[in-house]
Amino acid sequence: MPNIKAAVKWTRASEKRRLRNAAVKTKLKTLFKKASAPKADDSAVTVAMSALDKAAARGIIHKNAANRKKSRLAKRVRSKIPA
After folding, report:
1. Which of 11, 31, 60, 72 could disulfide-link to 48, CB 3.0 to 4.6 Å?
2. Where are the domains of the chain?
3. Which residues have a Cβ under 8 Å from the Cβ of 60 and sit 6 or more positions away?
4. How many helices (H) and strands (E) does the chain have?
5. What is the pTM of this model?
6. What pLDDT does residue 39 have?
7. 59: left (phi over 0), alpha (psi -120 to 50) or beta
8. Nearest by Cα to 48 from 27, 64, 68
9. How many angstroms separate the CA atoms of 78 and 66, rounded?
10. For residue 2, what pLDDT is reported?
């Protein structure tokens, strides 16, 4: 248990953030899988990309990580579509 009174609040706040961040990361994985599915439409891809951008803006994932995931998603979508 923390000795400093404020540290108790820091502990509570960091636990809330951890849970919220975990929920967002799980949602990102789900959206990525839905957008990568063979029968996914363009709206699923748009929603996934938007969610990645929002997570990066909020600091839940790093900006470069979001860009990397968006790039990989775009690559998968392109490979599904016959040329």
Report:
1. 31
2. 5-80
3. 21, 24, 25
4. 3, 0
5. 0.83
6. 87
7. left
8. 27
9. 18
10. 77
Token pair, residue 27, equals 């949602």
Closest CA to 64 of 53, 75, 50: 53
pLDDT tens digits, the chain, 83 residues: what are they? 778 999 999 999 999 999 999 999 999 999 999 999 988 889 999 999 999 999 999 999 999 999 999 999 999 998 876 54
CA–CA gap between residue 59 and residue 49 (Å, rounded): 15
**Which amino acid is residue 27, in one-letter code?**
K
What distance in Å separates the CA atoms of residue 22 and residue 59, rounded to the nearest whole number?
13
